[in-house]
From TrEMBL:
CDD domains: HTH_XRE (cd00093). It comes from Ramlibacter monticola. Residues 15-76 form the HTH cro/C1-type domain. Coiled coil: none annotated. PROSITE patterns: HTH_CROC1. This is DUF3612 domain-containing protein. GO terms for molecular function: DNA binding. InterPro entries: Cro/C1-type_HTH, DUF3612, Lambda_DNA-bd_dom_sf.
Length: 522
């Protein structure tokens, strides 16, 4: 009897640890089981009793758990196999931190003097710099803003989905008057470029929102604009200190003028734009019901079309509400600007929103989709990226689209697969290396080897992301942040070969030559 009790508790403990490793609540695990077999799926209370060692699951229920977590049923019964503890990520969100040494050069007073000078000399606008700060804040904090989440949930009462009529009613409830106007796309200036732009909506303090009539035919965009203006009224009392909603622009949501340097308004407007955008996403996609929706739809971006959510809202919001934290999101405009970036998985950037680089790697999915003329407008891709002596593995889903002014751009959302593979097998690094070697031996792209493909499919089922297996139908590709550092045996097309030398290389040659002379003399 004592042995039976011990085995029951061990099984429950392993199930609980496995569930928490994958970031699932009891309710979410129950829902996943219902998706597979509603007749045998356990209730939340019964799951709790199993995890507490008070109930023993039947063989059928054990098989259900095995399917959800892609384990052999015997694994749950094997007392010799320990359950994995939740593993901390080896890759923090965003770029690697830089030590501020010597510390006296990074004092507040010096930074306050040096940053405006740096921006003025490089032609960087205050808005660009503010968005860079906000992006880093997002990535370091893993996009976690509970106060904004709570405020949005209080306004929307966690209703999901909300219709355009619901948003209009919420505007009225918060004292906002909607005034419609007609204005076609115009040519707008965005620093040193001109682009087609459409003024979608803007806030006129204290309680008027002007909305372009074209949004009547586009409920998904209309809902987002209204939600963000409700955010401004709720969060900031409708003082009007925020940007208009317009299409295009290399940074943020709207084109803006060529103002280099830094002003307080730049930072204030950028932060408020971010707050209102985050609030809008939380209002339209409250965490718990949207997480259930993603689970039912296997994180497919197209599912948003059924409930009038834009692909951008779907992608941005899933990086926040998914139980898996290792996501990235890009919004790219040609010829090579990232208008929006989120790197919760720390993926290196191929290019950024400050300036277009001269040697971008052409094999990133988002870059390939920007260059593509015709063909499918959405695609999933498995990518291998070398960082130092190790290879990283990413899977993304990219989609070609147009903004309201008709400008083409590409939205891309993806995950770092290494943590998911490591949660399943100790051979994760070897499997990733096998994919990299297959690509390197075949001009930079190759079908994923069978063993690695099997592990990726199993991990995708646990993550419940439907576009990961779809990526296996295409060859995996070697990517790199810059084409000049391409690890392929035959480097991809980039700038012509240069005879330029690095000073550090010259130093090593001189020191090495001197050592050889001394050894010969000795």
């Amino acid at each position: 009897m004592a042995q039976h009790t011990r085995n029951t508790r061990l099984l429950g403990s392993k199930l609980r640890t496995l569930r928490k490793t994958h970031g699932l609540t009891l309710e979410e695990l129950s829902a996943r089981c219902i998706q597979l077999d509603a007749g045998r799926a356990p209730s939340v209370s019964y799951l709790s009793m199993i995890e507490g060692g008070k109930r023993v699951p039947s063989a059928e229920l054990l098989a259900l758990f095995a399917t959800v977590f892609q384990r052999d049923p015997d694994w749950f019964l094997d007392a010799n196999q320990a359950a994995e503890a939740p593993a901390a990520s080896e890759r923090a969100g965003g770029a690697p931190p830089v030590p501020f040494e010597p510390a006296f050069l990074f004092s507040r007073e010096l930074l306050q003097a040096a940053i405006p000078e740096l921006l003025a000399q490089t032609g960087t606008s205050g808005r660009q710099f503010a968005h860079l700060l906000i992006r880093s804040h997002q990535e370091i904090s893993r996009n976690d803003y509970p106060d904004l989440e709570r405020a949005a949930e209080e306004v929307g009462d966690r209703r999901f989905p909300l219709s355009a009529e619901d948003l209009i009613a919420l505007c009225r409830h918060h004292g906002l008057e909607l005034r419609w106007f007609d204005r076609p796309p115009v040519l707008a200036r965005d620093r040193d470029t001109e682009l087609r732009s459409m003024l979608r909506s803007f806030y006129d303090a204290p309680d008027v929102v002007y909305v372009n009539s074209a949004l009547r035919a586009d409920p998904a965009r209309l809902k987002f604009d209204l939600a963000s203006h409700i955010a401004h009224k709720v969060l900031h009392g409708g003082d009007g200190l925020r940007s208009a909603h317009a299409t295009g622009g290399q940074v943020g949501d709207s084109p803006h003028g060529p103002s280099a340097g830094l002003s307080p308004d730049d930072v204030l407007h950028a932060w408020r734009d971010f707050e209102c955008s985050f609030f809008a996403g939380a209002l339209l996609c409250p965490k718990v019901p949207f997480r259930r929706f993603l689970a039912r739809e296997e994180h497919r971006i197209e599912a948003g079309e059924k409930i009038h959510l834009t692909p951008a809202v779907m992608m941005r919001r899933m990086t926040k509400v998914s139980p898996y934290p290792y996501w990235h999101f890009f919004d790219a405009y040609p010829p090579g600007y990232l208008r929006a970036v989120y790197r919760g998985n720390g993926i290196p950037l191929p290019w950024g929103n400050m300036a277009q680089v001269t040697d971008p790697c052409p094999h990133w999915a988002v870059f390939r989709m920007l260059e593509r003329q015709g063909g499918p407008d959405r695609r999933s891709q498995i990518s291998v990226l070398r960082e130092g002596e190790q290879f990283l593995l990413y899977v993304c889903h990219s989609r070609q689209t147009e903004d309201m002014a008709g400008n083409p751009h590409v939205l891309s959302v993806g995950v770092d697969m290494v943590p998911a593979l490591r949660a399943r097998t100790a051979d994760a690094d070897r499997l990733v290396d096998s994919i990299a070697q297959a690509c390197l031996q075949n001009h930079g792209e190759a079908r994923v080897p069978d063993e690695a493909a099997l592990a990726i499919r199993a991990a995708a089922k646990v993550l419940n992301i439907g576009w990961i297996p779809e990526a296996l139908e295409q060859p995996a590709r070697i990517i790199c942040p810059r084409s000049t550092n391409c690890p392929r045996h035959e480097p991809c097309a980039g700038p012509g070969t240069s005879r330029a030398r690095e000073i550090a290389e010259l130093q090593r040659e001189i020191v090495g030559g001197a050592k050889r002379v001394r050894r010969a003399a000795a």
